[in-house]
Amino acid sequence: MDLPDYDFMSDKTEDTSTRFVTFIGPSVKRYDLAITTTNSFYGKKLVTDLQAGKTAIIGPDDLEADGYLEYVFKLTQEEAQELGQFLTMVVGAVNFSDL
After folding, report:
1. Which of 48, 74, 78, 89 could be cross-linked to 55 through a Cys-Cys bond (beta carbons 3.0 to 4.6 Å apart)?
2. Which of these, 93, 87, 74, 91, lies nearest to 25 by C-alpha position?
3. What pLDDT score was predicted for residue 82?
4. Which of 50-54, 67-71, 77-81, 93-97 comes out lowest in average pLDDT?
5. Which of 39, 20, 26, 57 is nearest to 95 (CA)?
6. How far is residue 70's CA from residue 24's CA, in Å, rounded to a whole number?
7. What does each C-alpha distance from 91 to 8, 60, 64, 81 come to in angstroms?
8. How many CB atoms are located within 10 Å of the residue 92 CB?
9. 70, 86, 66: which is closest to 78 by C-alpha?
């Protein structure tokens, strides 16, 4: 079988660390998250909402952007605020090294 010509921009494999967290916020919404730490994305975390099947690359700058969590995870403003408060504790500072 002939493979089509792919123009790879990047193709790498790395070991990552994933934290699985389930919590219920004050709005009584349940959050089931997988937070992956990787050397990619300049230190930002790969955050997956396991219930909704939505993933975003999130750093402190994204948490400060108005409406970002609402948009990417399809949340109400109240839900986004409580998710943002949690993510602020786990995201940390962005690392700009590309090792």
Report:
1. 48
2. 87
3. 94
4. 93-97
5. 39
6. 17
7. 29, 7, 12, 15
8. 13
9. 70
